[in-house]
Design a protein that fits this description.
heterodimer, A: mainly alpha, 0% strand, B: 3 helices
């Protein structure tokens, strides 16, 4: 059957030969540099490089200088107290420490007035009741530092004992804080921990004394770089 | 022929770039005075800072001095 609908006439395509000439875009000619521009570019490059290098060097020098000055200042400020007050220095420092704790107790009680926390009041009562012991601790650490500076050789040989006493004091305070916290928390683990530490305070003391002397022995005989 | 004196940045007498030291050596003056004057110039809307940076870039290093970077 013949197809219905009009047939669309076919378009005649002319077969003109398309010229195959390549169309080249005209490139802009580079501008000729003026005389001396090359020299200027290289000069500015050299100067900028030198400038950047010098600024980097200045930054490093400044950093080293500040580090050195900070260390010097730290050393001077530590020695200043002992040089100024001498043997009385640790005693004065301990008095200041007690005054500071007293102020801390007063502040705690002040903050606790609106809160009414029994934990804070127990803590401040603990500090107040043991103020004389804190004074003894401050004197101990103060004279330890003093003798480490005045007689470093003698101090060095007995330093593990002093360090161990310090550690035992720390653990004693820790035990008390755990007990105080446990009054409110009621944890059996904390009770066990505080009991265990209290029972083994002397063992902890001996352990750190032995470790301290082992460390001194290694440092003296092997001169290891990682030993402080 | 008289030797022309060149303006260099000083490597011996420098705090930052040696610009004031170099100017001091050129004019045979104390570089501290030149530094004070330059600091006063910095107070004039920071022009001293810009001039210093330009001088730092433009002035060459003194080839007779040791430059440790």
């Amino acid at each position: 059957m013949a197809k219905k609908g009009k047939e669309k006439p076919k378009k005649k395509v002319s077969k003109k030969k398309i010229s195959k000439k390549k169309v080249t875009k005209k490139r802009a000619k580079p501008l000729k540099k003026r005389k001396g521009e090359d020299k200027f570019d290289s000069w500015i490059e050299q100067r900028s490089g030198e400038f950047a290098q010098e600024v980097e060097g200045i930054g490093k020098r400044f950093g080293k200088h500040m580090e050195h000055k900070t260390k010097e200042w730290e050393k001077k400020s530590c020695d200043w107290w002992f040089l100024t007050f001498g043997i009385v220095g640790p005693l004065i420092g301990s008095i200041f420490g007690i005054v500071f704790i007293g102020f801390g107790i007063w502040l705690l009680n002040l903050f606790n007035l609106p809160l009414g926390s029994s934990f804070i009041s127990s803590f401040s009562n603990f500090l107040l009741r043991n103020l004389h012991w804190f004074f003894v601790i401050f004197i101990f650490f103060g004279y330890k530092d003093y003798f480490s500076k005045r007689c470093p050789k003698i101090y060095w040989t007995i330093s593990p004992i002093f360090t161990s006493v310090g550690i035992v004091i720390f653990f004693f305070i820790l035990i008390w804080v755990i007990n105080l916290f446990n009054k409110f928390a009621g944890s059996s683990f904390l009770e066990f921990l505080s009991g265990f530490l209290y029972a083994n305070l002397f063992v902890i003391f001996l352990l750190f004394v032995v470790l301290g002397y082992v460390f001194i022995f290694i440092k003296k005989h092997f001169k290891c770089h990682w030993c402080v | 022929m008289a030797k022309t004196k060149n303006l260099y940045r000083s490597g011996k007498n420098r705090i930052l770039g040696g610009v004031c030291g170099g100017i001091g050596e050129y004019f045979n003056k104390d570089p501290t005075i030149i530094r004070i004057l330059w600091v006063l110039l910095c107070l004039a809307w920071g022009s001293g800072i810009l001039l210093y940076l330009l001088a730092w870039i433009i002035m060459p290093r003194n080839p007779r001095h040791k430059w440790n970077d």
